[in-house]
Design goal:
Helix content of chain A: 25-40%
Shape of chain A: globular
Strand content of chain A: 15-25%
Distance between the termini of chain A: 16 Å
Helix content of chain B: 55-70%
Number of helices of chain B: 4
Radius of gyration of chain A: 20 Å
Radius of gyration of chain B: 11 Å
Oligomer: heterodimer
Largest sheet of chain A: 11 strands, mixed
Strand order of the largest sheet of chain A: 5-4-6-7-1-8-15-14-9-10-12
Amino acid sequence: MEKIAITGIGIVAPSGMDKKVFWANIKAGRSEIKVIDRYDAQLYPSHIGGQIHQLDAYSHISSRLLQKIDPFSHMALIASEMALKDAGIDLTKENLNHIGIFMGNALGGWLYGETELRDLYLEGREGVSPYMASAWFPAAPQGQVSIYYGIKGYSKTVVSDRASSLMAIGHGAKILAKNKLDFILAGGMEAPLSPYGLLCCNTNGDLSTDNEHPESAYKPFDKDRAGFVVGEGAGIMIFEPQERVDARGRKPYGYIAGYGTTCDGVDRIKANPDGKELARAIRMALDDAGYKPQDIDYISLDGAATLEGDVSEVAAIKEVFGGRAAHLPVSAPKTMFGNLLGASGAVDIIVTLLAMEHGLIPPTLNLKNIDSRCAGMDYVVDKARPAEIKKALVISRGRAGINAVVALEKQ
Amino acid sequence: MDTKGKVKDVVVKLLKVRPEELKEGQTLEQSLGVDSTEMVEVCIALQKEFGVQIGEKEVTKYQTLDQIAGVINQKKG
């Protein structure tokens, strides 16, 4: 595919509300996984997560609008504003009909939904806000960003479990490569820590219940793995064609160079342990970018911390990269701030772009005793490792074996 | 507080706007840009405040505070 430049980053995450603070925490290998303290969650099997505390301090959104939207839209609006500013884009000088929005999330806006549902049972139908209809559904953030800026070009929301935002990014880049739009906002958002949202996440059985040790609870590829830990946040980026970037005289962070996606088609929850379909998605992304396996300097892992998820991810990498897998640096930085579900792929892209910029591979935390079935890989653990990354892959996967892979290239 | 003052209070608290944004003689749409969904909320809040039933076409965003207060006073008898 034609390479698509990434010129702006907006990050709203437990590790930081702008790219500088975020990267400082990631670089330091600092865990932001804590006991959830915004309500009494002690009775939930897993009551730890990556929370955002200072959202209002960064918000440019009026109280009047805030009462009509869920926090996942609020996070998307903040991240979008950051990304546009970072890219130096003045929307008053743009053709709003030629701008698109491609975003992904898995759950929708549960806090708004569950609050209104409670009011329905307590007060009857007149107790339910008329904004319920437009606040909870997964395309709400796309709609709110569109309304806020008056953006009117072809846009799309992708719902594909934890692979949602990486698939939105891949799809958006493909649309842009076909010269359908001037530029796009691409990324994802998720707010799963509401009382009912967290309960739903708990019921799938994939969350770590090591509540006594929040910071070390998320340990993918470890023989003592116990599932992942959820987090909330948003990552939005500005994607532009190269000619436009040149005309604006901007220096991009890097490029989306290729995209591949497949489905395992085996189980409604678990990945196929053989990793064959993930391997095919990796090859698709490499082929799409015109890369050979030996070109890749780093892989950002999905790191589900489930047995089938970890084993199949390692099997896929070994199948594609062969003997080189033992010397190819890989890590799952989300162990520091939690798995942002549908937003995780977008945040992983941002982490990888910052890693390219700073020449530093962010670590996987808590990987002390590698599962023998996941051995033979060059895991970057505990501390960031200096390394030049020119080309990288980002892997994001959802339940039922959804596989998405994006190839990134440094500026 | 008279009916008009109470209507103003309901709108200000519900929409989280400043009282001075509600201009005298202007409709809710003109002064605040109230949309149809916000108007549904305003009607429900007015029903609760005054204990009267208000049909969706009786109180609209195209009315001023005086006109809305007039409708409510008529219903209260």
